[in-house]
């Protein structure tokens, strides 16, 4: 897990809060991976998925109860201000 201190401060957020959230999500993702479960997010919703077939889509085994998800290719770059930013 890596938190970007300068970016957190530029956003006006509390480093401890961001670190805590990142740690919890990282631990949950590691636990899911141990069981072959993928955390999927896109179009505002999140779900847990399991690949049981190479010929069909993954089974959606759970829908997450928040809509704070986004997808994309995960691209990133450093802006002229030196801060890391994601695609838009």
Structural write-up:
The protein has 88 residues and is of the alpha+beta class. It has 2 domains: 1-34; 36-73, no CATH class. Helix content is 31%, strand content 26%. It is built from 2 helices and 5 strands. The protein has a 3-stranded antiparallel sheet with strand order 1-2-3. Strands 4-5 form a two-stranded antiparallel sheet. A hairpin with a 2-residue loop joins strand 1 and strand 2.
Using brief descriptors, characterize the structure shown.
alpha+beta, 2 helices, single chain, two-stranded antiparallel sheet, three-stranded antiparallel β-sheet, 88 residues, 26% strand, 31% helix, globular
Q: Mean pLDDT across all residues, rounded? A: 91
What is the N-to-C succession of helices and strands? HHEEEEE
Global geometry: globular
Distance between the termini: 23 Å
The spatial strand order of the largest sheet comes to 1-2-3
Low-pLDDT parts are none
Quaternary class: single chain
Counted by DSSP, the helix tally is 2
Main sheet properties: 3 strands, antiparallel
Can I get a quick summary?
This protein has 88 residues and is α+β, with helices and mostly antiparallel strands. Helix content is 31%, strand content 26%. A 3-stranded antiparallel sheet has the order 1-2-3. A two-stranded antiparallel sheet has the order 4-5.
Describe the secondary-structure layout.
Blueprint: H1 5-11, H2 15-34, E1 37-42, E2 45-50, E3 59-63, E4 76-78, E5 84-86
